[in-house]
Amino acid sequence: MADAKTPRPPARCLGVLGGMGPLAAAFFAGRVTQLTPATVDQEHIPVLLHNDPRIPDRSNAMIAGGPDPLPAMQRGIRALNAGGAECIAIPCNTAHLWFDALQGVSGSPLLHIADAVVQDLRRQGIERGRVGILGTPATLRMGLYQRWLAEAGYEPLLPGEEELTRWCVAAIAAVKGNRLAEAYSPAARAIHGLRQRGADAVVLGCTELPLAVPTQRRTDFGLVLTDSIDALARSAVAACHG
Fold it and tell me: Which listed residue, of 17, 50, 87, 204, carries a Cα 20 to 30 Å from 102's Cα?
């Protein structure tokens, strides 16, 4: 008689603080499902998605004195805690500039997207070298990734201000406006610019950028791309099934 399959322990419930932007959060939730090693429904991860686009813009708040998004983000964290989330992912890079304040109101641990990206670089065989970073102006100017990469032994490489505004911000805006067909060209220009300056890998460090550069186009660039959505999704799967 064949041995019965040993049942997998139930996965921890994942909370997702979304809305920043809404498409990226929905795509992230889908990637968690796609990256989960499951054979039946019951082996998948329970996911609570709080996808609230009313949260004020994070870049505008950080660098232009716009409305503070922290109270709305904290309400979202509390709602996820109340719903039973046992760990929480935030598929918005810029929101991690408030990471400590969000962790401070949460009864469950938050996953950090920059840590997930460092682990994804290593998964792809990039142990050292120059790593380019693309993201929102606030993410880059406030050094979200630079510290994590430097502490992990990488040399961070940033786009120039004109590259950031003309190409990276344009690609992000196109995705937020549901104009995905328009997003690839400026995103590609930004990646090529970093490659020409010696990048060994590039971090798509805004969760709109992986939507701007589809998976099937990522071999076009001749260097490793680390996708912050997939990196965080892999971290979430490990945390919930760990």
Answer: 204
Q: What is the DSSP letter of 207?
A: T
- Helices then strands (H, E): number in the chain? 12, 7
179's tokens: 């104009």
pLDDT digits (tens, 9 = 90+) for 181-230: 999 999 999 999 999 999 999 999 999 999 999 988 898 899 999 999 99
Report the topology of domain 14-112+232-241: Rossmann fold (3.40.50)
144 secondary structure, DSSP code: H
- ∠ CA(13), CA(235), CA(15), 5° rounding? 30
Is 113-227 in the same CATH topology as 14-112+232-241? yes
DSSP 166: I
Give the Cα separation of 29 and 10 in Å (integer).
Answer: 18
Query: How far is the first Cα of the chain from the last one, in angstroms, to the nearest whole number?
Result: 31
Domain ranges of the chain: 14-112+232-241, 113-227
- Give the C-alpha separation, 134 to 100, whole Å: 23
pLDDT bin (cut points 50, 70, 90) of residue 235 is: very high
- The 10s digit of each residue's pLDDT in 36-63 is 999 999 999 999 999 999 999 999 999 9
